Amino acid sequence: MNHETRFENQTSSTPPQPSGFEHKATEAQERGRSAAAGGLDSAAEALHSGADALPAGGKVSAAAHSAADALASGADYLRGHDLQDMVDDLVEVVKNNPGPALLGAVALGFLMGRAFSRD
After folding, report:
1. What one-character-per-residue DSSP string does 57-117 give?
2. Angle subtended by helix axes 98-116 and 83-96, to nearest 10
3. What is the mean pLDDT of residues 77-102?
4. Terminal Cα-to-Cα distance of the chain (whole angstroms)
5. Which contacts (CB < 8 Å, 24+ apart) does range 66-72 have?
6. How does residue 37 score in pLDDT terms, banded at 50, 70 and 90?
7. Is residue 10 part of a domain?
8. Which of 15, 54, 88, 117 has the smallest number of CB atoms closer than 10 Å to its CB?
């Protein structure tokens, strides 16, 4: 019993150390977020360039710039939040909008089913 008490005291005062697997997973997640943010930035820049080639003041040009701004905003969000923050935000959106979230989940399931079907 004394041995167990000593072991419990030792483990409770020592902060947990990340395992090699956890460290690799965290690094992979960070690389994925960085790559996704970079891709969104590239798409935003290309969309802004394409919108600049459209007639100035047109509705299509304004919509393209707005979409490019949204992509750039998404890239900033990815850079500024870790996975847990994103999960928390998603849970909040689903709680506040259960109907659209359910419809989105059904649509995503349908599209994934179509993509992975053998036909």
Report:
1. T-HHHHHHHHHHHHHHHHHHHHHH--HHHHHHHHHHHHHH-HHHHHHHHHHHHHHHHHHH-
2. 120
3. 94
4. 63
5. 68/43, 68/44, 69/44, 71/40, 71/41, 71/43, 71/44, 71/47, 72/40, 72/41, 72/44
6. very high
7. no
8. 15
pLDDT reading at 8 higher than 80: no
Q: Contact, 75 vs 95, CB < 8 A?
A: no
Supply the pLDDT for residue 54.
Answer: 80
Average pLDDT for the chain: 85
**Max Cα-Cα span within the chain:** 81
Please give the average per-residue pLDDT across 56-67, as a whole number: 85
For residue 61, what are the domain limits? Answer: 21-80
Amino acid at the residue 8: E
Residues 105 and 92 in one domain: yes
Helix axes 59-80, 20-53, angle to 10 degrees: 160
